[in-house]
């Protein structure tokens, strides 16, 4: 054990009192937007490799169910609230420290897309909300986590969940894509500013089979899948595996990068 001088909390060393051979043994993560889909899969993967995790989401009931699915209070806590709410962010990080005594990994997964159609006809207020949640909130989560101890021990990492839509234009989701492009730039900028104590990377998935992405494939899944050289759409566990790699010491010499997860759809210029 040692004292975190900034928070005054006793924290365990990585691997202290935990089984060997798991990349996140003794480590603690916050995963935002994690009551279902990609966020829940990421939390599950981190826990399977030894982490303890705080998960967040807007609605308390699904979040409580997610905590139970993850194994309960011994390995997971849930804090409900809006990602773009400053009080919620501060509360979530403090709950994490109170429950588990440290913070090593932040996964900014929360994202919204209430705007569909041409960017030229997008409602300005709705577009601003997309950027508030998808970009500014991720930046603010990073600031909150850093102020309360992220980076005070070795192995600290942030992984942002962006999108293939942030890498090239995609019909109908231009505002969302623009926000994810901004998040990708934020990723590289933070990687520069937070090195060497904190590594910052991102993943950019194509279509993943979640409720969030249903409109992109529902009723025409085979048609969409035909554009993917690997012959299938993404699964939340595909994203979780990539996030776990980037957050782990296996990626200890990687920062400022965005890993494309697209089943090969981009090889022929597909949009996913």
Automatic annotation (TrEMBL):
CDD domains per UniProt: SDR_c (cd05233)
Family matches, as InterPro entries: KR_dom, NAD(P)-bd_dom_sf, Sc_DH/Rdtase_CS, SDR_fam
SUPFAM superfamilies, per the entry: NAD(P)-binding Rossmann-fold domains
The Ketoreductase domain, residue ranges: 27-201
Pfam families associated with the record: adh_short_C2 (PF13561)
Family per similarity comment: Belongs to the short-chain dehydrogenases/reductases (SDR) family.
Protein name: SDR family oxidoreductase
Source organism per UniProt: Kineosporia corallincola
